[in-house]
Amino acid sequence: MESQVRLFSGTASETLAQKIAKEYGIKLGNLIHYRFSDGELQVSYEESIRGQSVFIIQSTMPPADNLMELLLLIDAAKRASARHIVAVIPYYGYARQDRKDKPRVAIGAKLVADMLAAAGATRVMTMDLHADQIQGFFNVPVDHLYASTIFLPYIQSLNLPNLTIAAPDMGGSKRANAYAKHLNAELVICYKQRVKHNEVENMTAIGEIEGRNIILVDDLVDTGGTLCKAAEMMLGRGALSVRAVCTHPVLSGNAYENINNSKLTELIVTDTIPLKQHSDKIKVLSVAPLFAKVIHSVHHYESISTNFIV
Description:
Blueprint: E1 5-9, H1 14-24, E2 31-35, E3 41-45, E4 53-57, H2 65-79, E5 84-89, H3 108-119, E6 123-127, E7 142-145, H4 148-158, E8 163-167, H5 173-183, E9 186-196, E10 199-206, E11 213-221, H6 225-236, E12 241-249, H7 255-260, E13 266-270, E14 282-285, H8 288-299
Helix pairs in contact: 1-8
């Protein structure tokens, strides 16, 4: 007997999960999330999932309760005899800790991968990991989706002349180069020096900027400091406009204030993380249709490669 697709949502991604379920054509499954008086979480599936393919949708941005809730949902599904348990993690938190960049630090991305597997996830589906090699931290299949499928048609719809794609740092050059090739655009790479995390000391750029419409491409935007500084620097060097495309709107600290007061024309993000507040400068594109389509393909053992543009 073929298993049925069952979609469930953690509390961190309820809005996105509702959109994915609507695109898929089914309703979200019934869950109870309970919190004890001391803050401890408890989850319960309020319907049978025995022998079913369970897709649990939850981004793992802070607080850490979001990750813990996902682990509890996976464990509960395993103990309820689900046939397949797929952790759908639109934003994979702790991905920036993908290596030892100095002595005596943890590799958080690997630790989270181990916890997901230990909890009972049989597959992981995510989008725009901070580093592609994080897929190798798992011993279960990983479906790594790319927001370029959503961003590129939007960029093309802008019909910008003299388009240039920019990487905000050296680490993002591969992603920016892929966008530039697909759009037949020029490429600029920014070089930045940090005093500490989330604080850029100075920045310069390699490539032609004057008279160009610039689009910065990155996997996430946190405080927005890098993007705002890059926009200011590029406009000072003669750029016509500067926009930014970032998959995950982490937007912590003074990010909204930084973005609103910046010289960015527009910041385009996805809904992998819900926005904390509205901003006229931030445009949100939904990833729900893409995730719904890939969930359907995964369940029916179909290729998902046709969903990738770059």
